[in-house]
Structures are given as C-alpha cells and as structure tokens.
Amino acid sequence: MKKYLSIVLGISLLFIQCSKNNDDVAPIVQKELPIVQDFMWQTMNTYYFWQSDVAALGDDRFNNKTEYREFLESEQEPGKFFEDKLLFSEDRFSFYSEDYKELTKAFSGVSKSNGLEFGLSRFADNNDVFGYVRYIIPNSDAASKEIKRGDLFTGVNGTTLNMANYEELLFGDKDSYTLNMAEISDNLITDSNREVTLTKEADITENPVHISKVLEVNGHKIGYLMYNGFTNEFDEELNEAFGTFKAAGVTDLVLDLRYNPGGSVNSARLLSSMIYGPYPDKIFLRARYNQKLQDQFNDADLISYFSDKTQKDSPINTLGLNKVYILATGSSASSSELVMNGLAPYIDVIHIGSTTTGKNEFSVTFVDDIDNGNVYDPSREDKINPDNQWAIQPLIGRNENSAGFSDYTEGLAPDIDLEEDLSNLGILGNIEEPLLKKAISEITGVTAKMDFTVHIPVKLITSSKMFTKIKDNMYMDIKNPLPLNKE
C-alpha cells in the first residue's frame, strides 16, 4: 500500500462562516450534518465495490455543501438511508448494524441464541413452512432439551408456520417459544403432539470446529472435519484438529462445510494451508477493489499467500494433500466458497452436495473512527465517535484465485450431486450419514450395493444462520486502513 492515500471529503466537514470585517453582523452557522448518514456516505464513497455504479456516491455528485447536507437529510432513518440511497441494485449482501458492539461479538462466534440451528422449507402444495433441525450447539438451551438433528417442526406456540409469519414467530423479539413438532410417515410430514420449549441465552459461543474425528475404513485413514464458521478466534483449535489428523497418519480428508455460511478470509487462508501446505510463496487469493482504490495498491498489498503459521505464530499443521473431498450445499457461502476456489488451481477439489450460495465478495466492518479510515479496530474502542454506535458492513472487493477466477455468483456446482434427504439426514460424523458415506465410497472405491436415493430432498428457503448478525458474510482484515483526509 502506498504510504498515504489522500481521499478528500471536504463536503462532510462542519463549516462555520463568520464575518471578519463587521463585528455587528451575526455569524452564519451551517447546520450540522446528520452524523450517521455522513459516516455512511464517507465510507461508501471511499470503499464500496460498486461506488462508480451508484450515482449518489459519485465524487462529483454534489456541487456544494448545501446539496450534500440536503441529500443526507433526505432520509431520517439511517438504515433506510443506507439501503435505499447507497446500495447498488445487484448487491445482495451489504448490511448495517445499529450497535457495532453486538456485531463484532457475533463475528467472534458470540451471540444470543437457544442453540438450535435449523433450516426452513416450504410445503409443495401451499404457503405453509416447516423446519428441520440441522445440529445443536453444545452447552446451549437446546442441548438440554429433547430435540436433535433430523427433528421436524411445523408451528410455533400453536400457530402454523407460513411464508408470511415464520420470520416474526422464529426470529422476532421474544426470547422464548414453543415448537410444535412433526414427524415423517410414508414420506409425508405430519403434525405430532410433541412440543419443545426453547429459550435464548445471552453470549452463547459456538466453536466452529463442530466435529473432528479419524475414520478407519477399508484400510484408509480418513479425517472428517465439520467446520461451521470461519471464526478467527478458533484458528488455534482448527490447527490442533489438523495436528491430530497428522499424528494419526490421515491420508484423506472430508471437509464438511454444508452449513458454513462463511466468515474470516484469513481463517479460510489458514484452513487451506492446513489442507494443501505451508507455502508462503504461493498465491491463495488476489483482492480486487473498486477502481479508485485498486490504483492505489501494488501487488504486495493485493495478494495473500498460503501460510506457514497462525496469527499466534503456531506452525501450521498441514496434511499436504493433492485431493480433498468437500461437502457443500446451498448454505455454503463466502469463505467456504473461497476455500474451494482458492485450492482449485493446486489440488483436486471434489465437491459433493449441491450448488453453493455464490458469494464471492468480501466486506469490512466500518465504524465512526475517522482517524483509522473508519475501519473497526478493537484496540481503538476509545477512538470511536461516542455519538455514533452504528456500523456498516459493505462489500468492498472480490477475491480471485491464483488463476484469476472469481466468477461464481451463481454458485459452485457439485462434482457429485447429492441433496440432503429429510427422511434420512443421518448422524453427523457417522459413516452411514449419506453425504459422508458418499465421500467415503469415493475414497475407498467401494460403491457396490450402496443406495443413495433421495426420497424427500431438502428445498431450502432459508436457515437460522441467515438471521444472525453476520449471516453469510466474508470479511477481510485491513492491516493498513486508508486515511480519510478531511480537508
């Protein structure tokens, strides 16, 4: 990065015009700018990936300070201002938060949750909705209740779920609700009399290294890792899991990202290094920003390489594989896709499951800290404007692999198409669980008499993770924030 990047945002200053020659003339005081909207516009004008495609973000959009202020005041609600005035029409993923502290805690794997992770699907013949349990977060309220993977529910507090009410019933303000359970009989989902009451608890921490085990099948030592979020606070635990694989002599790996919506780009880089190798001279990704910023960087600023150590300087435990089997679905997004795309030029990536989300842009958390380029830095909490607690998480760039490929907005298609089956979701980590079983059959070459027929395929509408603060976000760490020169 060049030592200084001068971005003039003079229109966002507070100007006070006073008469210098006549003490009897009262000073003309310019109205103060709306703090949150000003912060949002400054940041988006500088960093937003589609800055040149949004007329309101143009460098020459406003002729004077009055026009700029009137624009900021045109929408009093900051959230609507961000969504309606600043976002590109094709942007599916940028978002805001009224409380940056809540957002940054979520990126650390901490959230208010009852511990139930589930998907939602729609009945074929009407607008009614049902849910199915994907997994339970350990040490949560759900972990203490009679509910498990594969269980179904069709209602909340006695009200049948449908397309119009599921969001309010399941993700509304209430901390507690009762699920009306269902079951499958003759390949039909029918209501049962069972109920399960769940309560959200504050500061539940999810370790994304959900399952890590070594499977010995037909003379093969297979590592199985279910990884449910790229959370950099757990990079050491991830590295330890690969240390166990390495010590056990694992020669094949099944990486389960089927419910992983993404997270830290750096964690994706480290995971890929654990799979492929500690090669700090080989390109993992190349970042591409908006043209205004792209011109300010050199290759060293844009390229990230495979790594030989974690951020805490622990040596990377690597398996040095030339092939990896990745279980991925429509719920696999951003950093999950980044791992698949980043490894593809170097090793065979066998994708089993269904087409992924298709999120190839990355974002950064921005807060009102002008001296740090508005980039959030936990060590600068006391520098954030105390009058503005808002944060924005806009898409600011796109990651290419070493071959220059990044065009997967329609998702990454599977090599082996196999949807999850509601009538047989199986037990995660068990060799009979269908997607893992398929991967094992590919590794061992034993496929005779195996039936992979899907009787009730999952047709996903959304999932519980899409209603968390971080959703399917892929975020980068900016080591050298771009200064915003307000002159």
UniProtKB/TrEMBL annotation:
<feature type="domain" description="Tail specific protease">
    <location>
        <begin position="191"/>
        <end position="419"/>
    </location>
</feature>
<dbReference type="InterPro" id="IPR029045">
    <property type="entry name" value="ClpP/crotonase-like_dom_sf"/>
</dbReference>
<protein>
    <submittedName>
        <fullName>S41 family peptidase</fullName>
    </submittedName>
</protein>
<dbReference type="Pfam" id="PF03572">
    <property type="entry name" value="Peptidase_S41"/>
</dbReference>
<dbReference type="InterPro" id="IPR036034">
    <property type="entry name" value="PDZ_sf"/>
</dbReference>
<dbReference type="InterPro" id="IPR005151">
    <property type="entry name" value="Tail-specific_protease"/>
</dbReference>
<dbReference type="InterPro" id="IPR041613">
    <property type="entry name" value="Pept_S41_N"/>
</dbReference>
<dbReference type="Pfam" id="PF18294">
    <property type="entry name" value="Pept_S41_N"/>
</dbReference>
